[in-house]
Protein: chitinase
Amino acid sequence: MQMPIIQMALWLAMIVGPLTAGAREAVRCVMYLTGQHVVVPPDRYLVDSITHVILAFMRSDVFNVDQTPTEFPFFTTVAEIRQKFKANTKIMVAIGGWGDAGFEEAASDDSTRKRWARQVKAMVDLTGADGIDIDWEYPGGNRDDYKLIPNSQREWEIEAFVLLLRELRSALGDEKLLTIAAPALERDLMAFTNSTIPSIVDQVDFISVMTYDMMNRRDNIVKHHSGVADSWEAMRRYIDRGAHPHKLNLGLGYYAKWFMTEQCDLQHPLGCRTQLLEDPATGADLGKTAAFSWHDEVPVELANSFEKAHTHGRYFEDGSYGYWDDEEKRWWSYDTPLTIKTKVPRLLGELQLGGVFAWGLGEDAPQFMHLKATVDGIQVLRGDQSTHDAAKDEL
Structure:
């Protein structure tokens, strides 16, 4: 169902009252800064609203060594990035990422866990980072090679993941931050259960739940990749399994995704079947889905379809945005600034979450419209009525 723009404005107006009544001032605004797009906005309103910057990624296998390296090569330095933000902004280093292969060795036994944690601590000391963000995607299975190595061979990682976090927390001490990025989809939560989440929460300062890419090449029906309702359900799962809401960050993806589909109903594309998106034997990408950030040039072959998505896309009943191109049989899914302005205060307020994060800061350059919507949404949550009025005026 399409949500008219006026209805969206009224919805935002209705939720602001109950949200601001219980809003907290200390709302985290966490931004990944990637080696692909090392861009920081010039607007101090945006920069000064960011509480944490996480530099991504350093490979996990760098630390599976006995002798401490004399340097840790990276796309930038903590000191250089620190100069671009206000003095109390936390600058962290993310270890891992999709396809990273070093965590399995790191977690394999007590000695390898101690060695790995010791070398990570050495890197923190050398770089001056304020902490570490662990991006193991994913402990327990469903990694990029899940068709070649079944999850049954990785069940041991579920307990080992908790033990690795404990070892790293011990090495870092309480003065440094330890955080994790965690999956949103139920199928990927092998290591995030009723029994493990309380133990994980005890070790980390916050958990950033990746409530994006919730439609990917392993799916076969059309849905929103960062849908409002799906994001709410993902965050609720962590709370129900023992995570304190204030330790959770809602995830935003500053990019657009597309998927090739079978014939769909133009008015009701959700639930429509996709084309085959991955090789059923190897899990390899078949080129029927991809993404690009707002910083990237729109590929020439997608320009016409993307323009239609931008012009004729719809807000669905939950506030999510999408468009099915009936000529190319292509489904577009992404967050608009309006979606973010409504999603951030609504979900953080209703669920009492501790913050929001995005992948990634430079991906939103040069206009930083989605970042501004994120910051404005946080201001709405805090009760800045002037920001709320400005958001309504844009509608």
